[in-house]
Write a structure and sequence with these properties.
The chain contains eight helices and 17 strands. A hairpin with a 2-residue loop joins strand 5 and strand 6 (about 95-100). The protein folds into three domains: about 1-60, Alpha-Beta Plaits; about 70-155, GMP Synthetase, Chain A, domain 3 (2-Layer Sandwich), CATH 3.30.300; about 175-360, Vaccinia Virus protein VP39 (Rossmann fold). It is elongated. By secondary structure, the chain is an alpha/beta fold. The chain has a seven-stranded mixed sheet with strand order 13-12-11-14-15-17-16. A four-stranded antiparallel sheet has the order 2-3-1-4, with helices on one face. The mean pLDDT is about 95. The chain binds S-adenosylmethionine. S-adenosylmethionine binds near residues 206, 208 and 231.
């Protein structure tokens, strides 16, 4: 195949010129000797010697094989003929782990699928099958299928808002999809800090690996301190690591700076946790409303507090939820203001996920 040979440092310029004129073929750039690159030319490109090439020669080189563009092209030949519907159509990548749900018809080919995916996506280390979320800790039931280097740990690292987050999808809940909610939480906490005209203490008793603090800690002069916890000890280990790493970059002394493994409903029984928070986050979507009465005592018992949480509810009950939330606040001795309950997304045919928020005046 005909290639234009140019000095390596001029590759980009000539790539642009050839592309702009429609002379660049789809195969990749090849190496021509130590200091030159070959740009693949289409049949329409002018002949060698045309003034447009500024004296650079054309050379005949084998085109570079672009390689498979989809993981299914790496499957063994005898599987290639199976219908497309056999193969998983979606998957999730978390750090160096690929997580996929295997339908019954794909199960016998699990190993071939995993090997094909590792071949197609070089940064991956491990492919796992996801059998759904289990128990109170909301952890996925992951089965390692194939590992590039033999290691089957589900510990890995992801990036969220420019910060490294240590996660372990086989042991601890974490969802990258909630990053936009965390961004909104940051906006709300910032607005509340402006309203109080002082840095605030945020309590997140269901904090998982701690992602709600990625942005909160980074925002100078936003937090006076934090109380972060979870009932899953493995979540707390990772959260400690994460918060320590994020805090190292910040020149602020947080008070309190508490990370603990404890049932959120029992925090109120500890003098160092009770009555300390300006903001309380409640992220236990299947039980958030039920836990609320045990969480109100965490608020500083005077001035204003901000409650923000997430819940999965029957769609038909959404209209009653503002009233329910306000009733719960009043029962705890507070006066609710600006209460909102808004749908985020469908959860099932009858249930939806909502975000709720209320400003509470304490006497
Ligand atoms: C939906 S996850 C939210 C995690 C985190 N806020 C996030 O956004 O990634 C709920 C978390 O609550 C924890 N949890 C469940 N029951 C709890 C309880 N009674 N007290 C404290 N944490 C609990 C689970 O271990 C899990 O990490």
């Amino acid at each position: 195949m005909r290639h234009l040979s140019v000095p390596s440092e001029q590759t980009q310029v000539w790539l642009q010129r050839c592309r702009a004129n429609g002379w660049l073929a789809q195969t990749g750039v090849v190496v021509v000797g130590e200091h030159h690159r070959g740009l693949p030319l289409t049949d329409d490109a002018p002949a060698e010697g045309d003034a447009c090439w500024e004296g650079f020669p054309h050379v005949e080189v084998e085109p570079r094989n672009r390689g498979p563009t989809h993981w299914t092209e790496h499957l063994p030949e005898h599987l290639q003929s199976l219908p497309e519907s056999t193969w998983p159509s979606s998957y999730e990548i978390m750090g160096d782990i690929l997580i996929l749900k295997l339908e019954e018809k794909a199960e016998p080919h699990a190993q071939a699928i995993a090997e094909a995916m590792l071949a197609q996506i070089p940064p991956l280390r491990l492919v796992c099958a996801d059998d759904g979320v289990m128990g109170d800790f909301r952890v996925r039931d992951l089965t390692p299928i194939h590992s590039r280097d033999g290691s089957t740990t589900t510990k890995t690292r992801v990036k969220e808002n420019d910060q490294v987050v240590d996660v372990d999808p086989g042991e601890v809940y974490y969802s990258a999809r909630l990053a936009h909610q965390r961004k909104k939480t940051h906006d709300e906490v910032r607005a509340f800090r402006q309203r109080l005209n002082r840095p605030v203490v945020v309590a997140d008793p269901y904090a998982g690996v701690g992602p709600s603090f990625v942005l909160l800690l980074k925002d100078t002069d936003l937090l006076q301190g934090y109380l972060a916890g979870d009932l899953n000890p493995k979540a707390v280990d990772l959260m400690r690591q994460n918060i320590a790493r994020w805090s190292r970059k910040i020149d602020t002394e947080f008070t309190p700076a508490t990370v603990l493994c404890k049932d959120a409903r029992t925090w109120k029984d500890e003098p160092e946790l009770r009555g300390k928070a300006d903001v309380v986050l409640v992220n236990l979507p299947h039980d958030s409303f039920e836990h609320l009465p045990d969480l109100f005592p965490l608020f500083v018992p005077h001035g204003e507090g901000l409650l923000r949480g997430w819940a999965i509810i029957e769609r038909t009950t959404i209209d009653t939820r503002v009233e329910q939330l306000e009733r719960l606040v009043r029962a705890a001795g507070g006066t609710p203001k600006e209460t909102r309950v808004s749908e985020i997304k469908d959860f099932s045919t009858t249930r939806i996920k909502v975000v709720f928020q209320t400003l509470i005046a304490w006497e």
